[in-house]
Amino acid sequence: MELLQEWHKRKGNAATIQVLMEALQEAELQLVVDSLKEKYPELNAKQPMEGACGRQQKNPVQTMSDKQSMDKPTAFNTGQVKQSVVQPKRKDTKVRPIRVGQPWVRKVRFGRYGSGRGKFNRPLGVAVSQDNEVYIADKGNTRIQVFTMDGVYIREFTTTLPGETGETLEPCDVAVDRNDNLWVVCEKHVVQYSREGTCLVTIDLPHVGYMCGITVSMATEQVIVTEFDGQNGRLRVFNQDGSEVGTYGAGHRSPEPWWPRYVTVDGEGNILVTDGKNHCIHVLDREGNFKFKFGSEGSDESQFKYPRGICVDGKGNIIVADGRNGCVKMFDSQGRFLCYIGSGMKVPWAVTVSPGGDVVVTHWKDHTVSVWTQD
Predict the structure, then answer these.
(1) CATH superfamily of 104-374
(2) In 3D, which of 364, 343, 349, 368 has the Cα closest to residue 105?
(3) What is the pTM of this model?
(4) What is the pLDDT of residues 55-64, one digit of tens each?
């Protein structure tokens, strides 16, 4: 803190300060970042993204083949949709069975640091629709980008609130409902968009200073959002008309207050949550009652260090982005370790599974997205 203040007094390099701000976020110190931005408003200004302090990424935009969701609902057009450059074909959505013992390989990686088409500035949440469109919450660029499962750019829209102000939002996570509408969460709002970017519903959230995760339960059609105020965590649950159902998570049964990071729902309506403070996974029933948890802090195959993204495949297997361990792991529905999907990653952030069983991973630190499959 004193170092940042000294650099500010000396009018140090803005790009260097931006790098340190990102480092504070990565170290789970978002409240420190917010307090600095409040004290020094100029830190909220967008910094140059290309070539700052040599941090431009070298990964090409092209894909690289590699084996190795309180207000009443209102509809507005954001006017920010950019046209598609490709129209994806609908594919067979039959779930491919997981073959235990069969290795996972990375079939494509795409993106790099930047603001153009196909580039990212802190890609966080990810979701895949039933027709295999991949939606990426491109936080730093305040937009949702859409790709094929092969990493080919389709379209994008800016994440804004409706009305005269048109406040721009930094999306933290994205989920898809049964109608293929998108639910996007930032630090103050949840917004439902059509897949083309038309705003359908807005919900105000209390500003808690930490990034939120979101999912939509296909069983109850409710929207579930993670929340953490620096001391206590909870799940906030809404109906799709924006009315609040309540909060879940008081009975998490961990020794420390929990930090719910990302959330998903399985085929039976059970709610699964990653806990960044207790380094474990909590499983609740559809009413929010605690069922069980698994994992502990560590680097073994059944342990985690700051788990982030989570999803469940069509067979009920649980997939987790183990952030600080730099890998993505698969467990069965009871939390028993099955296999590694990928390892040696730079801060894997969010994960989702396609209808066909491929796994999509966002990489926050190197601003890329990867797709993993079994041969």
Answers:
(1) TolB, C-terminal domain (2.120.10.30)
(2) 343
(3) 0.78
(4) 333 333 334 3
